[in-house]
Amino acid sequence: MTHLQTGLSPETIEKARLELNENPDVLHQDIQQVRDMIITRPDIGFLRTDDAFILRFLRARKFHQTDAFRLLAQYFQYRQLNLDMFKNFKADDPGIKRALIDGFPGVLEKRDHYGRKILLLFAANWDQSRNSFTDILRAILLSLEVLIEDQELQINGFILIIDWSNFSFKQASKLTPSILKLAIEGLQDSFPARFGGVHFVNQPWYIHALYTLIKPFLKDKTRKRIFLHGNNLNSLHQLIHPECLPSEFGGTLPPYDMGTWARTLLGPDYSDENEYTHTSYNAMHVKHSSSNLERGCSPKHMTRSQSVVEPGTLKHEELGPPFFQTN
């Protein structure tokens, strides 16, 4: 085992070998081959090229070196093309901190049965007079930067659940093609994470229409990982066990506290009155803060899912194996 795998469980190392083609004997050579490709893109400023950083791109593309380099290049190119999004890219930025406090995103402490981290979005909590879509996207990307420092998550990946309960047509009208394309480019094409599934719950008809609108921007593999459950939580539980989910999704865990992840990033000075002074996070330097979730804070009361568990069949564009990951 190389030092780059330090901290990984034997089970995860074996999983990386079987599923990602990760070979500790040639890990440094794989990384160097990706690094050697940087000279082919002089138009991009590669601001970070250390071994640990490049390794996450190799894992996200199953050690296909050319694909890993392409993802690395897209990561930095996306940041060059959207400079305003990444100015003051830290938790105490006013726009990012408002989005975090409002629960964008939610991050469950308990992982699913495959070791994947579960992210939540309660769409109806989007107060458009308070948070721009861009700031919500920035908060999600910042959160992923923190979480992807965990090597276990580089290998096991993530799941995203979006609850559309009470999301109004007026709110949906603000989801323009241009900002949806910005999100897809940032999450699908430019970030080194393995997304095992995106689950829509309680989606109204106009979200189905929006999904049709964005489908041309989605890769085939992404479309296969989008699950449309409606109000049928039984179909959700076929893929994510109830003991991993809060009660809003028919799970056995307590209701999700919207302030949990914000307190993790913002530190102990965070309060439910949205007043805090702690400045603790720079996306490129925080290590494993996702494992230090604080306890004992009062839940922030916000809109919750009104789902009911009903029998039914899983609605899905193309249903495949229960565990999907990005090549």
TrEMBL record:
Record-linked InterPro entries: CRAL-TRIO_dom, CRAL-TRIO_dom_sf, CRAL/TRIO_N_dom, CRAL/TRIO_N_dom_sf
Keywords associated with the record: Cytoplasmic vesicle, Endosome, Golgi apparatus, Lipid-binding, Membrane
Any one annotated GO CC term: clathrin-coated vesicle
GO molecular function, one term: phosphatidylinositol bisphosphate binding
Domain CRAL-TRIO, chain residue ranges per copy: 96-257
Keyword Membrane assigned: yes
Membrane topology note: Peripheral membrane protein
GO terms, biological process: lysosome organization
Entry-linked SUPFAM superfamilies: CRAL/TRIO domain (SSF52087), CRAL/TRIO N-terminal domain (SSF46938)
Domain of life: Eukaryota
Coiled-coil residue windows: none
Region (Disordered): 290-327
Cellular compartments annotated: Cytoplasmic vesicle, Clathrin-coated vesicle; Early endosome membrane; Golgi apparatus, trans-Golgi network membrane
Pfam family of the protein (one): CRAL_TRIO
PANTHER family, per the entry: ALPHA-TOCOPHEROL TRANSFER PROTEIN-RELATED, CLAVESIN-1
Role, per record: Required for normal morphology of late endosomes and/or lysosomes in neurons. Binds phosphatidylinositol 3,5-bisphosphate (PtdIns(3,5)P2).
Name assigned to this protein: Clavesin-1
Lineage of the organism: Eukaryota, Metazoa, Chordata, Craniata, Vertebrata
